[in-house]
């Protein structure tokens, strides 16, 4: 055996001894870390399964409560909703709380329903859900509370930029009408009509309300801007800013044909008539 082979074998033996010593020293930590990773993965998967299973169960229980409500079995529906509120997972308890307040109102327990909506408005972390609870409470208080009760809940919601502004304006207007503040009610209804984002069904309802105010003689005729046609025309002008330019450019065509057809000098008068009539359509 050559001297090089001897040195090589000794070197390999030393490396092997160092690896065995390293493994004996750090093996418990390596094995422990591997077990911890496996345990964490197992716990996470188990929790995800448990949460998904509970969410599915909560969903089934909530829909079962909805069926009871549709069947007008309100006591059983309340018991089912209470179970979801107590034991449900995810957002299902919150949905059950909203529905329970509606069931209380349907059963004639208006004060309890308003209290339930107020509790939701004071406890939820989502601002839109809080505002929804206030709007629903305000809706119940139109016939069961004072104008101050309604205003304290929804007056700050009936402002520009709020997604629920038109629902709040309608409720506020009805409460103002009930309280005898007819001018304020007219303003609230017209604000819904003049909002470009209002749906046609909402505009129609506001039109009925304003017609009722006019028929009772408690308000004067609404301002010209407060009509559904003007609101629609305002949207059209926003969408197509070049519409007036097209109208004024129309009379130029007859002028070019004047030399070719001198026998018909009255032809250019037609565009002028149409441009004068256009504002009347608005």
UniProtKB/TrEMBL annotation:
<dbReference type="InterPro" id="IPR011990">
    <property type="entry name" value="TPR-like_helical_dom_sf"/>
</dbReference>
<dbReference type="Pfam" id="PF09976">
    <property type="entry name" value="TPR_21"/>
</dbReference>
<keyword id="KW-1133">Transmembrane helix</keyword>
<protein>
    <submittedName>
        <fullName>Tetratricopeptide repeat protein</fullName>
    </submittedName>
</protein>
<feature type="domain" description="Ancillary SecYEG translocon subunit/Cell division coordinator CpoB TPR">
    <location>
        <begin position="20"/>
        <end position="200"/>
    </location>
</feature>
<feature type="transmembrane region" description="Helical">
    <location>
        <begin position="26"/>
        <end position="50"/>
    </location>
</feature>
<dbReference type="InterPro" id="IPR018704">
    <property type="entry name" value="SecYEG/CpoB_TPR"/>
</dbReference>
<feature type="region of interest" description="Disordered">
    <location>
        <begin position="243"/>
        <end position="282"/>
    </location>
</feature>
<keyword id="KW-0812">Transmembrane</keyword>
<keyword id="KW-0472">Membrane</keyword>
């Amino acid at each position: 055996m050559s001297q090089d082979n001897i040195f090589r074998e000794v070197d390999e033996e030393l490396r092997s001894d160092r690896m065995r010593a390293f493994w004996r020293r750090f093996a418990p930590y390596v094995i422990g870390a591997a077990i911890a990773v496996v345990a964490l993965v197992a716990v996470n998967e188990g929790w995800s399964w448990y949460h998904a299973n509970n969410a599915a169960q909560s969903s089934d229980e909530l829909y079962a409560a909805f069926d009871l409500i549709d069947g007008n079995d309100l006591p059983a529906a309340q018991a089912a909703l209470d179970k979801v509120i107590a034991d449900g997972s995810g957002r299902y308890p919150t949905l059950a709380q909203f529905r329970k307040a509606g069931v209380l109102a349907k059963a004639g327990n208006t004060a309890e329903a308003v209290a339930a909506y107020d509790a939701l408005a004071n406890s939820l972390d989502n601002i839109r859900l809080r505002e929804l609870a206030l709007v629903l409470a305000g809706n119940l208080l139109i016939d069961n509370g004072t104008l101050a009760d309604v205003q304290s809940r929804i007056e700050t919601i009936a402002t520009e930029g709020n997604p629920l502004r038109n629902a709040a304006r309608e409720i506020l207007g009805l409460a103002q009408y009930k309280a005898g503040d007819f001018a304020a009610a007219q303003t609230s209804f017209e604000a819904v009509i003049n909002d470009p984002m209002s749906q046609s069904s909402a505009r129609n309802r506001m039109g009925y309300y304003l017609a009722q105010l006019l028929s009772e003689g408690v308000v004067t005729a609404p301002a010209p801007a407060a009509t559904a046609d003007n609101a629609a025309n305002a949207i059209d002008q926003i969408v197509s800013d070049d519409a007036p330019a097209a109208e004024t450019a129309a009379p130029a065509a007859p002028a070019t044909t004047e030399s070719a057809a001198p026998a018909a000098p009255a032809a250019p008068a037609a565009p002028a008539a149409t441009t004068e009539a256009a504002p009347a359509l608005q």
